[in-house]
Amino acid sequence: MSPPSTILVTGGAGFIGSHACVELLDHGYELIVVDDYSSSTPQAFARVERIAGRFAGAVYELDVRDRPALSAVFDRHPVDAVLHFAAYKAAGPSTRRPVEYYDTNVGGTTALLRTMHEHGVHQLVFSSTAALYGDAGHGPLDEATPARPVNPYAASKWICEHILADVCRRCPEYTVLCLRCFNPAGAHPSGLLGEDPRGTPGNLLPYVAQVAVGRRERLPVFGADYPTRDGTGIRDYLHIMDTVEAHRIALDHLADEPGLHVYNLGAGRGSSVLDVVAAFSAACGRPVPYEVVPRRPGDVPELVADASAVARAWGWRPTRDLTDICRDAWHFQRLNPHGYTDSARRPNTKR
Ligand code: WQD
Question: Which residues form the NAD-dependent epimerase/dehydratase domain (predicted)?
């Protein structure tokens, strides 16, 4: 089976999705992109096109749960494989809106699988999350670490992985690669694309960047009483360009890895919230003010990757570190002080 050439990217206007579009275009793939713009904007594609120097792919505004609309896309285009990013991804809000998270993330994945099967498409790269490990204690986590999700977002991704594994056991025609992302962060070095969420950022890096550029007064540090070296949460921040490079490489391996395979995507380095504040202060040349507040529900003390399996299998290792992440995130925020998502039209769907 030859490597895929036309890729359907779900959630292609989002943070990881839009950077993945640049990576795939830079490596000669043809793209079909779908997104409901509930947490993104079609303006991302204009920026993708400026960076890649080409796009001209087909873009459809749709919710992946809308099977008739999704089926029409497969009817129109010769999809070879799917890169599935479309999902709600905020740990905290998922504890307040669990049904929406399960419906969107699990329902969206099953709707996609059914539509793929109806069109004879059986190659999928599923962007999963390390959050499914839950509170797994200190030290690097490998793929054999038991899944103990502690919030509906993480649980929804774990349920998707379970469904995908069962489908692959029963249907030998499928090839599925699940990539458990630790914490993608940073921005494209051009400064044209970056993490630009609607409204108040849920994730740490965009919030810090918005404080640094003066859009927000100070960073709320969610707890300084965790059992970590400085009391704040420790995560494995992976540069977004390393993240999407791994997703692109996964597409190249769909042809030679039938069945389901799971890989951690991380740098293998833990950074605390205060480490990130210090690194970002160095990147922007001024202190980033912060205030310690109570813990956020659904958070865990530490999540750091053992990503040796993907290095052994594909020879992939991240080449960028926290300094690169903060430099690129600051470059993006400085060039886009008010971002480009919030100023864009908001669809009539609640996030
Ligand atoms: C990181 C640390 C917070 C914001 C989630 C998903 C994961 C991935 C990334 C998709 C924690 C602290 C944060 C703030 C803070 N999603 N924090 N103040 O929750 O580890 O991971 O997003 O790819 O799958 O689970 O990321 O950036 O929200 O939090 O103190 O304003 O920063 O408590 O310790 P998280 P995060």
Answer: 7-266
Domain 6-350: top CATH class? alpha beta
Residue 348 pLDDT > 70, yes or no? no
What is the mean pLDDT of the segment spanning 40-46?
92
Q: Domain map of the chain by residue range?
A: 6-350
pLDDT tens string 206-235: 999 999 999 999 999 999 999 999 999 999
Query: 325: which 2 tokens?
Result: 């992440």
Q: Which tens digit of pLDDT belongs to each residue from 104-143?
A: 999 999 999 999 999 999 999 999 999 999 999 888 999 9
Three-state DSSP at 8 gives: strand
SS (H, E, C) 210-271: HHHCCCCCCEEEECCCCCCCCCCCEECEEEHHHHHHHHHHHHHHHHHCCEEEEEEECCCCCE
C-alpha span between 230 and 26 (Å, rounded): 41
pLDDT tens digits along 243-299: 999 999 999 999 887 899 999 999 999 999 999 999 999 999 999 999 999 999 889
pLDDT at position 346 over 60: no
Task: State how far the Cα of 136 lies from the Cα of 130, in Å rounded to an integer.
Answer: 10
Q: How far apart are CA 179 and CA 242, in angstroms?
A: 13
**Percentages helix, strand, coil for the chain, rounded to the nearest 5?**
40, 20, 40
Tell me how far apart the alpha carbons of residues 299 and 288 are, in angstroms, rounded to a whole number.
22
The model's pTM: 0.95
Contacts of 72 (CB under 8 A, 6+ apart): none
Tally Cβ neighbours within 10 Å of residue 118: 13
Atom of ligand 1 nearest to the CA of 15: 23
Residue ranges lining ligand 1, Cβ < 6 Å? 89, 91, 129, 131, 153, 181, 183-184, 202-204, 207, 219-222, 233, 235, 273, 296, 299
Nearest protein Cα to ligand 1, atom 10: 89
Largest CA distance in the chain: 56
Average pLDDT over residues 22-37: 96
Return the closest-CA partner of residue 350 out of 58, 25, 99.
99
